[in-house]
Amino acid sequence: MYDVIIVGSGPSGVASALELSEHDIKPLILDVGYTAQKRIENTKNLYGMKADQNCTDFLVGKNFEYFTKDKQNLPAKLKSPYFDFVTKKQPFFEVQQKNYNAITSYAKGGLANAWGSGLMRFSSDEFSGLPITLEDLVPYYEKLEKEIGVSGKNDDLSLFFGYLDHLQEPLNSSKKTLKIYSKYNKNKKLLNKKNIFLGTPRIGVSQNKFDVRDKCKYDNLEFWQPNHSSLYTPSMTLDKLISQNLVDYKSGVFIDRWEKQGDTIKVIGFEVETKKEVAFITKKLILASGTLNTSRIVLKSRKDYETKLNFLDNPAIQFPIFFPSYIGQRLETESFGLTQLNLFYKSEILNKNVIGAIVELTSPLRNEFLDKFPFSFKSNIDCIKYMLPSMMAVQIFLPSDKRLAGKLSLKKDGNIEIVGNELNVDDELIAEATSKLTNIGLLTHKSLAVKISHGNGIHYGGTLPMNSNPLTPYETTIDGELAENKNIYIVDGSTFKVIPATNYSLSVMANSMRITQKMVKTL
Hints:
6-stranded antiparallel β-sheet, 7-stranded mixed β-sheet, 523 residues, alpha/beta, 17 strands, single chain
């Protein structure tokens, strides 16, 4: 029998295991645990590999897997055949969706294998609607930042991310990024009065080597190389805990449900290969398998085929931005292929913070932009060749909106159903975002905005919310324990009944550590 079993090896599960290791408690982690079958052997810059015509396998696949129908609803970073393990399906149930596009992972390390590695704290006002405060998470933010090696600067965004003395050296900026920052600094006083702020992102990659993570290689392979050595993923911490014998990790197991047996919990699942039922006994069960699968386990354990749980995500909008003087110039291929700058503004419509990620476009395939130009196929290819060096993109994340939430339920055949609605981001919010971008001096237009489909924000939550006074079986206490199922703890995004615009990865991990520490005191 185990003192603690953790289900899932994504960010929240790894954070929980890290906290347990500080208390000399060795948990069992149960996981399907798919891993990458291939890695890119050649470590040149992507564009050097393209010149050598040595990249077809990992860009599109031998059988052009990149373009298959099941890939088209995925974000660009999950389309590479080498990232197939991240979204590989398990054989035990299906997710049936209407007006929603939730993405799940059963990989070792979860969806974080393909994250953008944005790792920033919530500001104090972003805890509005949550039963915890910034002060509750600060000790765990600090632990994680020191474990991960988060890079960044204490600049204008420190008003939101916090002033830290342990940041790693930030990455080099591209030429277009420096141009944006120069425009911002010239008008900073006026922009700040309008509640518009720009600054360096807080991310899990830096100019220097840190712990087991390599320094940034500027190779533009962030979209293509599984377990990229310079980009932090939770599986790095998990591997370290395994190597130090601080956790027992068992992969190849799909957890289906739990059953109470007196003061203990029987955790029941199936071997992925044989479909044989297996069981494990524990005193405490921590569910950290992602909002969708954690919710399924809870519904299945309670034999509930009627309840519909709120399923939240961050709505998002994408904008192209243009730099006419760079048209036809050489593509800058020596810069980091993900977030270059973060933009914060206060939405007068929502009265809440909104965050934008300004990114370079050197990593994605050019075909991602083919249908964005109004010419013939061949003309669009030529257009992209000359226009891409003059473009960046801004992804605007909005706070979660219950009107845009899906409803998640368990069907009697064991499948999960998520039903969204046909509502979308209001045009007024798009116009507001356009205005904020043009205030900085960025060239774009509201007609170019792309509304990201429901579920593609990939910041899921809301199904099993924390509440100071839980009123339903599907709420948890402030310490993450299910109201009517003692010793069952929820530590992933399921517990967030509202999701601020700021990337919630670091906050979910910190909250997982907070809940785990509270749980340890009850052992």
